[in-house]
């Protein structure tokens, strides 16, 4: 019988083999923007920065974690494509998407796109130790602070226009979470007072605003910090405090850890009830009427597995290992696509795969790499 670590090694190997073998776009450069349910390229699909940045991060993260050169070609291909096609050479920052030939389409800048690009570049720097890349990381950090941070109201804008004007003012969880993720990775090699101050501020925003509820994390606010959250994202309930626990260790914010563990325990109660009842984690629950959207999504299972690991690490309570193993077994059984490779994105309420593309802007190896490297 395989140990959990051995199983994670096998999962990581299979998934990264899929991405390195099946996603290269040899006709137009970079990687395909979409593969269909069966893993075939969807012709002339746009290419998004989230997918490309997460690919660069994933390949570099695995290379750094396993100390391997196996994905060196993929890493360099990914980095060069982002720089050659997504970078705005006039106003700085990175565009949201390009067409299949690499020509920019939506030229507005989204904060979450800059965050994932910075995360990818910091991991790439840790892989390459290229000083030019380090300088790019610092420049992108400064660009984000200069153009997305609203000092008066203390939040980061979700989006600005291509010529750096404010476009909309929804205050979004993903923006702040993934900026913090990128900033803490940058702090591994760029330890300045300014960056540490920004990290501490993001911690405070996330703790005091997005995690202020006892039962769930907020997803969106309006510009006056009025909640716009209509559905509880059960995956984010696990992901957000779990990621914050990791970040707290990187920047010595140990005083937050007890609060975060308590928050994570509260937020995972619903996940444990669902595992007992249906085996896995549903996508959403309505805040008002408590009805579930009864579909299972791949990343929510993964992030909840990571959360259970964190809870066991901090509490040593065996029940979290029990739920971790239950959910991992459910995920292996129903999400891994043994025929076509990689994982299904969604399952119906009766645990049948829903026919949707296997690769899209948001469907990447990022979450699987996070899970596997947590155990290896």
Written account of the structure:
This protein is an alpha+beta fold. 55% of the residues lie in helices and 9% in strands. It is built from twelve helices and 13 strands. It has helices at residues 4-22, 49-66, 72-86, 111-128, 131-148, 173-186, 193-210, 234-250, 257-278, 298-315, 318-335, 366-375; strands at 47-48, 97-98, 109-110, 149-150, 155-156, 159-160, 166-168, 171-172, 220-221, 231-233, 282-286, 292-297, 346-347. The chain has a four-stranded antiparallel sheet. Strands 3-6-7 form a three-stranded antiparallel sheet. Strands 1-2 form a two-stranded antiparallel ribbon. Helix 8 packs across helix 10 (298-315) and helix 10 runs antiparallel to helix 11 (318-335). The model has no long low-confidence stretch (mean pLDDT 95).
Distance between the termini: 17 Å
- The pLDDT mean sits at 95
User: How many beta strands in the DSSP annotation?
Assistant: 13
Number of DSSP helices?
A: 12
Query: How would the global form be characterised?
Result: globular
Instruction: Give the neighbour order of strands across the main sheet.
Output: 10-11-12-13
Structural class based on helices, strands and sheet pairing: alpha+beta
Order of helices and strands: HEHHEEHHEEEEEHHEEHHEEHHEH
Radius of gyration, rounded? 20 Å
Q: Into which percentage range does the β-strand content fall?
A: 5-15%
Q: What helical percentage do the residues reach?
A: 40-55%
